[in-house]
Amino acid sequence: MAKAKKVKQPVATVSFLESVSSNFDRAAAHTGLPKGLLAQIKACNSVYQMRFPVKIGKDYQVIEAYRVQHSHHRLPTKGGIRYSQKVHQEEVMALASLMTYKCAIVDVPFGGAKGGVKISPKEYSEHELQLITRRYTAELIRKNFIGPGIDVPAPDYGTGSREMAWILDTYVSFKGGEIDAAGCVTGKPVHQNGIQGRTEATGRGVFYGVREACSHKDDMEKLGLTPGLAGKRVAIQGFGNVGSYCAKIFQEEGDALITCIAEHDGAIYNEKGIDVPKLLKHFKKTGSILKFPGAKELPQRKKVLEIDCDILIPAALENQIRVDNAKRIKAKIVAEAANGPVTSEADAILRKKGIMVIPDMYINAGGVTVSYFEWLKNLSHMRFGRMEKRFDNQTYSNIVALVERLTGKTIGMKERDFLTRGADEVDLVRSGLEETMITAYNQIRAIKKRKRKVEDLRTAAFISALQKISSDYIALGIFP
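and the corresponding C-alpha cells:
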C-alpha cells in the first residue's frame, strides 16, 4: 500500500493586530496600572468603515475605506492614510493603536489614528486617484473625522504630498473661512503649507535613533559590536521613501556600509558597499534596483532579511519576520522602520538569539514628529526661522568680526559663512527631530535598565507610552 504524502502545513502566525495586542499585554504586566485603565488605553475608540461610489472610466466602482481613531486622550488624533489592496479593518486598527503609543513615546500631543483605502494606486490614473481621494475626504468631513483640532491625516504607504494637497483643497472647499484649515492634514507640499524636511523625516528619524542606540558602549559590547555607525554593514528591505532616505543618510552622515537593498522586484548585494546616490539615479531611470552595475542579485528578494549584516532595517510592510524565518536572521540589530515588520512570535525568537530589536513605535516616529512641527507651523501661520534667522546671522557676524579684530587674523569666506549662517526651516526641523529621537531613546533605555525583568526595548517602549498615556487619563479625572 502506497504511503500517503505528507501535506506541508502553513506556518501558523498571528495577525498584525494580535501582535500589537500581545506586545501590549506583555508590557502592561510591568506597569502596575489598573486593569480598567489598561483596557481603555488598549481599545480603539472609533472605527469608521465606509463604502462609496466613484466613477472610474465609463462605470462606477464601489471603494472600501476606513478611518480609525484609537485614542482620544489627546486631540487631535493623528495618523497616515495608506492606499493598498491589502487594507482591511484589523490592519488599520493595529496601525492606529501603534500611532497612539508612538506619539506618547516621542512626546507629541496627539491621540493615535489611521486611515486606509482598499485600492492599488498603480491601477488608477492620476485623475481617478484624485476623485477617490476627494470623495474619501468628503466622507471624513461628513462624519466629523477630519479637522485641525479633530483628526489630522498624513501620508503613508501608497500616498504622498500630492494626495495630502487634494485632501487640503477638499477640506477648504467644505470649510471656507476656517482660519486654521491648513492644519487639517500634514505631509503637504512645501509650497502648499507644508514644511521642509517632512519627506525625509521617517528615514532621518531612523538614522538618529539607530545612531543613538549604537552610541552606548556597554550595549554594543553585549552584541559584539563597537560603538558608532562607521563601517557597520546595513541591509535595507524596501527602497521607497523611507528605505531610500535611510540608505542615503546612513551612508553619507553615518559612514555606514550599505551592503544589501531589496525592493518589490528583487534584491541586490555588494559586500564592499552599494553607492546609494548612483543607485538612486539608476532606480529613477529604470524603475528598478536590479541590473545595477557592481552588485549581484539575490535569488529571492526576502533573502535580504537573512543576509549577514550588523544592522537590518525592514522598511516595507508588516509581518516580514515571522516564526518561519526568525531563526535565520543574522543581524545584530533590527530597526523596525516599517510598522510591525516583526510578529510577536518572531520577536520572542529574536530576543532569545540576543538580537537588539529597536521597535517600530519608536524608531519610525520621525514622520509624526515632523508632522507635529508642520501642524504647529500651520496653526502659528509662520514658517520656522523667519523671526530669528537674520538676527542670528548678524549676531554671529559681529562675534566673528570681534574675534578678527582682537586676534588680528582674518577668517576665510567659507569658514565665515559656516560660522555666521542663521538656521533655515530645515535646520530647525532636523535639530528638533534629532533632539526628540535622542531624548525618547534614552527614556526607553532608562526604563529597560531600571526594571530588571524588562529585557528588551519594545517592552520598555510600551511601558514608557503606557505611563505617559495613563498620566493623561488620570489628569482628566477619568481614573483616580
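(Above: one complete record from the training split.) The first helix runs from residue 16 to 28.
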